[in-house]
């Protein structure tokens, strides 16, 4: 009988895995044939997030030249490199274009089709446009994958869960807000992929509270303004009259930092330097475990600082007071935050050239405004300054920090679940919106369609309305009959709406303290409570403790998701080859 591999999820992660199977199969799989079953109700390649059936006004969050699904020599993996076009090369776009998501979906379909075409003879791919409901079967025997609307299961020798972003049941706070909204005729939209949210209940001219100032908010902003007939005339927004008034705030109270608007030139910082494989090995070897803030964050901060100052001293030496070699030696020897701060203060005269990660993370801490209107002007100034800096190569140390963040993320993947703070901080600094989106945000603010609430935003439900306030403007509050939680659901197993994931027996699939599915960092096999890897079940994606920044990445940045895909593909092919050999 031909071996059977079932991949649940045919979006970017499942497609990346298929590409790695095609790359590694000539070396590892010489069996008598193989059936690969892709299970996903959405189109292969694009999946749900990048499907064609969404507004063409929604963009990608990266330049077209910075998006690839193909490996290069910077990816540390055992399998062969199979180079391929970036999005801009494939689509014939300007390299600096922010393509819409429909174009990215077509690119992903191309990657999928190419991977299928590259598979050796005898390996066949079948797409099942259904939802997977359950997986069952003994550890040492064939698995059964039950599909919606199909009376008999798919039989699988191996199963890989590549589910992507998940819908989730409401947490207690969200459930209470939803119940209050139902009881009082209000509108409450919980965390969701914004393109899937029903926004029709958000009525023209009425205030809407929005909690969340990241990428989900940017999508919401577009769908409630341009998608409702408004348009931009230069730096001015011309309303259609169909827009609600958005009152947005968050923990930080500011939008994510703009994408950097210039290219890298010259020598790259030699990374990793202070947080590389050796340091990760030492952390993993600690008999008492490690604490992120105490043991990991100091290494992260030192690595990011090294990237920043390497660029500043080597490219902008006129803004430093000592030679790079002297600074580097003292920086490497410095112990503790206070010692580093004193060294930097003596060597870098302008505070604007110093890296202050705490100030970046909490830009409005201690900042107070006398009125709501003063804050509107103040935050517009903050956004304008961010845009200026992020598009000025004189501050190219910021781009070096971005490269440092990518390097750090690739190392931290090996540590498993390190809590949610790091992932949010990374996204805030490294995965912010395109500069044009922030300029649109400014135009909407000047037009009165967008109002800023501030940092430490709190929302209460009382007196038949939702009420929001923030630390930034003492005494200010705004009431509304609608509240939108502008963020993706937390990727926890326990609250996932995905029936298959929630149905995994607890004794076969362990969770981390943050509710992520535990997997073997070596190859993605699902771990049980005793830490034993399941021989026939794998998982890849944001719902696991091996989550990475994304299923695709910038060229020549190591691509930790590519490394994971390769390891899983090789482990799966080796298992299936042994199985085929036994049965021959």
UniProtKB/TrEMBL annotation:
InterPro entries: FAD/NAD-bd_sf, HpyO/CreE_NAD-binding, L-asp_N-monooxygenase_NS-form. Residues 6-165 form the FAD-dependent urate hydroxylase HpyO/Asp monooxygenase CreE-like FAD/NAD(P)-binding domain. Residues 537-560 are annotated as: Disordered. This is FAD/NAD(P)-binding protein. The lineage of its organism: Bacteria, Bacillati, Actinomycetota, Actinomycetes, Kitasatosporales.
């Amino acid at each position: 009988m031909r071996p059977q591999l079932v991949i649940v999820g045919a979006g970017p992660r499942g497609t990346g895995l298929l590409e790695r199977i095609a790359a590694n199969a000539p070396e590892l799989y010489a069996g008598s044939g193989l059936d690969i079953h892709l299970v996903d109700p959405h189109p292969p390649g694009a999946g749900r997030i990048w499907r064609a059936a969404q507004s063409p006004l929604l963009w990608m969050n990266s330049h077209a030249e910075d998006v690839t699904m193909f490996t290069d020599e910077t990816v540390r993996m055992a399998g062969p490199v199979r180079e391929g076009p970036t999005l801009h090369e494939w689509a014939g776009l300007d390299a600096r274009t922010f393509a819409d998501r429909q174009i990215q979906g077509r690119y992903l379909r191309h990657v999928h089709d190419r991977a299928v075409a590259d598979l050796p003879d005898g390996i066949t791919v079948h797409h099942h446009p259904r939802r997977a409901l359950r997986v069952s079967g003994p550890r040492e025997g064939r698995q059964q994958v039950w599909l919606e609307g199909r009376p008999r299961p798919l039989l699988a020798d191996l199963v890989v869960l590549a589910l992507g972003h998940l819908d989730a049941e409401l947490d207690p706070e969200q459930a209470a807000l939803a119940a209050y909204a139902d009881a009082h005729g209000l509108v409450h939209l919980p965390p969701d992929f914004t393109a899937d949210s029903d926004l029709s209940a958000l009525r023209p001219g009425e205030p809407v509270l929005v909690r969340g100032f990241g990428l989900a908010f940017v999508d919401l902003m577009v769908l409630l303004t341009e998608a409702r007939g408004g348009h931009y005339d230069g730096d001015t927004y011309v309303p259609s009259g169909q827009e609600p008034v958005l009152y947005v705030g968050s923990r930080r109270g500011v939008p994510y930092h703009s994408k950097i608007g210039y290219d890298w030139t010259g020598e790259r910082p030699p990374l990793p330097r202070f947080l590389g494989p050796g340091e990760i090995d030492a952390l993993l070897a600690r008999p008492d475990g490690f604490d992120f803030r105490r043991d990991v964050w100091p290494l992260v901060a030192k690595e990011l600082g090294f990237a920043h100052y390497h660029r500043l001293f080597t490219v902008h030496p006129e803004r430093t007071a000592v030679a790079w070699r002297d600074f580097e030696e003292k920086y490497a020897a410095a112990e503790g935050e206070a010692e580093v701060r004193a060294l930097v203060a003596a060597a870098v005269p302008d505070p604007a050239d110093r890296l202050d990660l705490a100030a970046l993370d909490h830009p409005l801490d201690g900042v107070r405004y006398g009125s709501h209107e003063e804050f509107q002007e103040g935050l517009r100034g903050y956004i304008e300054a961010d845009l200026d800096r992020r598009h000025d190569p004189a501050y190219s140390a910021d781009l070096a920090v971005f490269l440092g963040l990518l390097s750090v993320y690739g190392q931290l993947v090996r540590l498993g679940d390190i809590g949610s703070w790091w992932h949010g901080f990374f996204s805030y600094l490294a995965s912010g919106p395109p500069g044009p989106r922030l300029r649109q945000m400014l135009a909407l603010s000047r037009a009165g369609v967008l109002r800023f609430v501030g940092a430490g935003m709190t929302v209460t439900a009382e007196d038949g309305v939702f009420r929001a306030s923030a630390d930034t403007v003492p005494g200010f509050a705004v009431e509304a009959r609608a509240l939108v939680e502008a963020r993706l659901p937390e990727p926890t197993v326990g609250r996932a709406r995905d029936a298959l994931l929630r149905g995994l027996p607890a004794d076969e699939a362990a969770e981390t303290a943050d509710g992520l599915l535990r997997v073997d960092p070596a190859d993605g096999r699902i771990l049980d409570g005793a830490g034993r890897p399941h021989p026939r079940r794998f998982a890849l994606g944001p719902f696991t403790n091996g989550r990475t920044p994304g299923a695709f990445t910038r060229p020549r940045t190591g691509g930790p998701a590519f490394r994971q895909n390769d390891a899983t593909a090789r482990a799966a092919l080796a298992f299936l080859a042994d199985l085929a050999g036994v049965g021959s």
